[in-house]
Amino acid sequence: DAGITQSPRHKVTETGTPVTLRCHQTENHRYMYWYRQDPGHGLRLIHYSYGVKDTDKGEVSDGYSVSRSKTEDFLLTLESATSSQTSVYFCAISAGPGPTTDNEQFFGPGTRLTVL
Amino acid sequence: AQSVAQPEDQVNVAEGNPLTVKCTYSVSGNPYLFWYVQYPNRGLQFLLKYITGDNLVKGSYGFEAEFNKSQTSFHLKKPSALVSDSALYFCAVILSGGYNKLIFGAGTRLAVHP
Lengths: 116, 114
Prior knowledge:
The structure holds two protein chains of two kinds. Chain A is built from no helices and eleven strands.
């Protein structure tokens, strides 16, 4: 978890409320990712970033948006939270584009989000 | 479509015995494979990866994995399990299309009993 922090670590919110999760890194890595972890599904990619202001969708992006205004910060926003977005959210970083170099991803400690 | 399968939800092994956690994959092109471990209330930690070369890959904490192209498998192994190895293990593969995107298996919970 070194070099990657996520905030908040726990959040309970109500349906329809906007929520923003923050990922902060001190490694100066170019690539950043948001995943959600749900039982039976492993981790699924929500959005990713390949540079400041450069982002794209992953496999489960509906209902989520992201922003990256600085190398070190990657924000995930749930525009209007739903109960199906109750999950544990992980941020990850990697130094390079892969697949043969710098392709390990390093993960933050996670944010547990509950939507009531 | 690219995918990763971990056929066992849970693996139970006695301390000191060898352990195997199974992973099979389906990819287009060359497979770039990873194993991660997750301890309770923690993020994922990188264990090892296969990119090319020797089919037996050695990683952290005494773990190794064997890449088998004909069986499209990448099983995680350890010769002698420790109670402290008890955790959730994920196999992953890099998706085609660049940007180092990973697709994960559903995970296998390893329980090592004293």
